[in-house]
Amino acid sequence: MSIFRSEDIELYKVTVHKDSEWQIMNELGNLSQLHFIDLNKDKQPFELKFTPEIASCESALKKISYIEATYKNFGIEQKSLENVDQFHERIDVISKDLGKADQLLFNDINDELTSSHDHIKGQ
Questions:
Q1: Is the residue at 84 inside a domain?
Q2: Which position among 72, 74, 101, 114 has the lowest Cβ density within 10 Å, counted as fewest Cβ atoms?
Q3: pTM of this prediction exceeds 0.70
C-alpha cells in the first residue's frame, strides 16, 4: 500500500438524525470508499458515545468463543457463513422477518447469547 492516494478526495461533514444513524453508517460502510476522521481525539474512551456498545460487543465475542470451544470439545458441528457479505445479508433477512431495526436486533441476539452462555456454563 502506498502512502499516496490514487484519487483526489473531498471532505464532507455529515449530520444525521439519531434514529437513522445506525442504518446510515452501515450503508456508508458498505460503499467501502470512505475514510473517517476522528473528531474526538481529545476525549477519553469512556467519554465517547459508543464505548458501552463496544464493551458489549467484546463481551459477546468472549461468550461466543466460550460456546465455540465447548461445542468443539463435544464434537458438535458448527456452521458458519463464508464471508461478511453473507453475514450482512443474513442479518437483513432476520431483521426484516422480525420487523426490527438492525441495532435493536443486536440486543436480542446478545440476550439469547447470554442465556445460552449461562446455561452451558451451568452444566
A1: yes
A2: 74
A3: no
